[in-house]
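Before the break, one more example. Copy the sequence into your notebook; we will annotate it together after we see the structure.
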Amino acid sequence: MKPLQANVPTAILAASKGAAMARVLNGRHMADVSELGDEVVVFIVGMRLNKPLKLSRWWPVVAAMAKMLNYLDENPDKGLLGCRISYLPPFAIQYWRSFQDLERFARDADDPHLEPWRQYNRRVGKSGDLGLYHETYRVKTSDIETGYTNMPPYGLAAVTAMVPVPHGKHSAAARMGVTDRDEPALPPY
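Here is what the structure looks like once it is written out:
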């Protein structure tokens, strides 16, 4: 899995490893998705602390997610390309090689997902103490448009590569291939 300054917030990562913040690439850039094949799966998973004081209900979920992400980082053949975590509110955006990889990981008893899922159902179930959600998107790479201005590699660009926006692709519509004409709302710099 290509790191996204990811499994912990950048500030904590920098402090814990004594590392400097990721290098900012000045100017306008986009993700180079050409190496991803025909599609990428975007998986958003998060939780809502409906009863935040019930630490025993939600902490095991946080701990299980950390264990899963470490496992996936150590086993790139499982198909997770990278992820970005937010702690407030708690959610993760994950990029997967395929839906088949994501589903296989979710269902495989040898992987660290199925058992925590069972435990959540047993401990929390319909109590309403903790809400979980996920959204899964299969996205054709030909339908992806990204833009990064004065940023280090981030999101999909951290999973692939971040390249300068080429001449003739300064508008989102031109990058998406919706039009042959490059008519940005503002002139590029």
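The radius of gyration is 19 Å. Residues 2-19 have pLDDT under 50 and may be disordered. Try to locate both features in your own notes.
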